[in-house]
Write a structure and sequence with these properties.
Distance between the termini: 42 Å
Order of helices and strands: EHEHHEEHEEEEEHEEHHHEHEEEEEEHH
CATH architecture of the largest domain: 3-Layer(bba) Sandwich
Number of strands: 18
Strand content: 15-25%
């Protein structure tokens, strides 16, 4: 019977996992590799550890406090609708203190090994090895494992894919290293990638740099945080009413109407932002500043990066920008869980195959779950809260998963949809 549950990481997902375990009468033990809670949302002036998440000083949430808070702990009334990272971290502290979660967390303990025990098929238990800051190892046995270590720790920097990068004399870095725009004052900078970080960094750097360029291969539908009536975007866009409309109206009609509204505000093709995807197929960027910076000339849109010269960059449309001082790659992260068995990484490119983005289908009994490893158009925290409720029901056999073959079919179907294949 599942009683003792390991929670790896004390960020947002880890905290709600600890709390939900307590609600279910289980015994959670959380190992956190740093010296504090908060995970991704704890800003540090410099990155001392290569395997830690990293955020920049100015980072503000893209989802509103009303939509992203945990179900049983509303955010303080004096908080703004969209939170600076320091305010969100303070919310996590309030949440942890209110429910007495800190006493279940052991800080500066890193999980290096989590493997099924020899009798796993009967017990479902896990052998776990941890290392403290002094390098001392400790062995543990757990009935279940909730992985909440995040997936923003291994930056993907495709520098080696571009010809001529060896001769480039400027600085190249990943957004993981970025803290603020001070280092780029008066310089000529290229930002590569138009995801959330790429949009934020390009707009911010353009206020300090002599010239900033944003290179994108796919474009984006740019939407501000404020919606009709001055309300937060997600309060209007994510509702039963809008979901019903999406189910009733033709997809082509919704795409046309939504894109028309956005293009009336600023023509995405004219601004160099026109995406390849329709708006319902993804490619939406929440950013309040990007179009304005383009309009003011502080930011110039460029096509996909193709290569380097000694002092410049070559783009897909044949243009070349010389005298570039720095290139910031906002090219995403690789989800890596080195403490888990390699046998679980059986997906394309060695990625984890997960049923409903939570359970490895190869594990029987299912006593390990991955939390928060998904992308969503809305807030993540409430979804993780539902994930852990489900995971613990499965751990304790209160509900059961589909058979392995069915789970693999679902995984394959979801992967095809994500890749845009029939």
């Amino acid at each position: 019977m599942v009683r003792r549950v390991l929670v790896i990481g004390a960020g947002a997902s880890g905290l709600v996992c600890i709390k939900t375990c307590l609600d279910e009468g289980l015994e959670p033990v959380c190992f956190e590799s740093s010296d504090d809670i908060g995970g991704l949302w704890r800003f540090e002036e410099s990155q001392s550890e290569s395997e830690r998440t990293s955020i920049y000083r100015s980072l503000v949430t893209n989802t509103s406090k009303e939509m992203m808070c945990f179900s049983d702990f509303p955010m303080p009334a004096d908080y703004p609708n969209y939170l600076h990272n320091a305010q969100l971290l303070q919310y996590y502290r309030l949440y942890a203190d209110h429910f007495g979660l800190r006493r279940h967390i052991r800080f500066q303990i890193k999980v290096t090994h989590a493997r099924p025990r020899p009798d796993f098929s009967q017990s479902g238990q896990w052998d776990v090895i941890t290392v403290d800051r002094e390098g001392l190892e400790e062995k543990h046995i757990f009935d279940g494992v909730l992985v909440c270590s995040g997936h923003y720790t291994q930056p993907i920097c495709p520098l080696g894919e571009f010809p001529g990068h060896e001769q480039f004399t400027g600085r190249c870095l990943h957004s993981w290293e970025y803290k603020d725009a001070d280092d780029f004052r008066g310089k000529r900078v290229v930002v590569v990638g138009i995801g959330s970080s790429g949009g934020d960094l390009a707009a911010e750097i353009s206020r300090s740099a002599a010239k900033t360029f944003l290179s994108t291969r796919k474009g984006a539908w740019v939407v501000g945080r404020m919606s009709s009536g001055g309300l937060p975007l997600d309060m209007i866009a994510i509702s039963r009413f809008t979901n019903t409309l999406k189910n009733l109206l033709p997809k082509r009609l919704i795409n046309w109407a939504s894109e028309r509204v956005l293009n009336q505000k600023y023509d995405h093709r004219l601004y160099g932002l026109m995406p390849r995807k329709r708006i319902l197929d993804g490619g939406v960027l929440i950013n309040d500043d990007l179009p304005g910076r383009i309009l003011q000339g502080g930011l110039v849109m460029k096509t996909n990066l193709c290569g380097f010269t000694a002092s410049g960059l070559v783009f897909e449309d044949g243009t070349v920008e010389e005298d570039i001082d720095a290139v910031v790659f906002c090219t995403g992260y690789r989800a890596v869980f080195p403490f888990l068995p390699l046998s679980l990484s059986d997906g394309p490119g060695g990625e984890l195959s997960l049923y409903k983005r939570v359970f490895p289908p190869s594990l029987e009994p299912p006593t390990l779950a991955i939390m928060g490893l998904f992308r969503t158009k809305g807030p993540i925290m409430p979804i993780v809260e539902m994930q852990v409720r489900w995971a613990l029901k499965v751990f304790t056999s209160s509900c059961h998963l589909a058979i392995k073959e069915r789970m693999l079919c679902v995984i394959d179907s979801e992967r095809r949809i994500f890749m845009g294949r029939p």
